[in-house]
């Protein structure tokens, strides 16, 4: 499978669901996920990459091998060795292995041309669009609740204002951005409560719009916020 989309659009999460779902259906023997990137697959010298790829594939047997930013394997001799080895092993272990290659849409188009056998081995392609502002607000609320935090009534509106000021593009962080915004808001809340003296139990678990206002990124800062 090919998963395309910007960072933070739940590609890895869905890959885990694919692994567990296929195992439940009896299509995979274990249903675990092994996530790798170029750094995990490429050896320091030519000839040392194939053993690394084989080790990753064998670790993923019975489940899903998730190759993040797979397009980075295209374009040089080391990457070509990795791709050629991966194609060979996908055929060898096709009965108990799923490989999902993920990355930006345009770059993944280039990846599929890196080896003549790739396109036929990745016939399924799923695009992961950016989340809407409403979806991102819901993600923020879910992450906050998981941390035992409550959002004041004015937080969702403030968050939508923040999101309108963040440019959308290939580097937009989606759910990852919400995690970083929440972490920054919690830090701002801690500073606010420390300055207030003796906060109540309710105040300790409540995020307010002022906490988010203190963390709102400018357009120039938006890219680096979630890297």
UniProtKB/TrEMBL annotation:
GO terms for molecular function: ATP binding; ATP hydrolysis activity. Residues 158-212 form the CbbX AAA lid domain. Residues 1-129 form the ATPase AAA-type core domain. This is AAA family ATPase. Keywords: ATP-binding, Nucleotide-binding. It comes from the Bacteria. Belongs to the CbxX/CfxQ family. SUPFAM superfamilies: P-loop containing nucleoside triphosphate hydrolases (SSF52540). The keyword Transmembrane helix does not apply. It comes from Actinomadura physcomitrii. The keyword Nuclease does not apply. Gene3D superfamilies: 1.10.8.60, P-loop containing nucleotide triphosphate hydrolases.
């Amino acid at each position: 499978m090919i998963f395309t989309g910007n960072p933070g659009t739940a590609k890895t999460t869905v890959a885990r669901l694919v692994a567990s779902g296929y195992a439940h259906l009896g299509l995979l023997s274990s249903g675990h996920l092994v996530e790798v990137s170029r750094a995990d697959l490429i050896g320091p010298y030519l000839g040392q990459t194939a053993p690394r790829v084989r080790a990753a594939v064998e670790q993923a047997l019975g489940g899903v091998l998730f190759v993040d930013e797979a397009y980075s394997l295209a374009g040089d001799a080391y990457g070509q060795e990795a791709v050629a080895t991966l194609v060979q092993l996908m055929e060898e272990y096709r009965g108990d292995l799923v490989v999902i290659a993920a990355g930006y849409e345009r770059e993944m188009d280039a990846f599929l041309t890196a080896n003549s056998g790739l396109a036929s081995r990745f016939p399924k392609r799923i695009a992961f669009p950016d989340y809407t502002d409403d979806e991102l607000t819901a993600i923020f609320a879910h992450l906050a609740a998981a941390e035992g935090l409550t959002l004041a009534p004015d937080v969702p509106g403030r968050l939508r204002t923040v999101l309108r000021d963040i440019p959308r593009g290939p580097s937009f962080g989606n759910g990852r951005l919400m995690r970083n915004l929440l972490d920054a808001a919690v830090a701002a809340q801690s500073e606010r409560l420390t300055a207030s003296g003796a906060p109540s139990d309710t105040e300790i678990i409540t995020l307010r719009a002022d906490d988010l206002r203190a963390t709102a990124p400018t357009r120039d800062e938006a890219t680096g916020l979630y890297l």
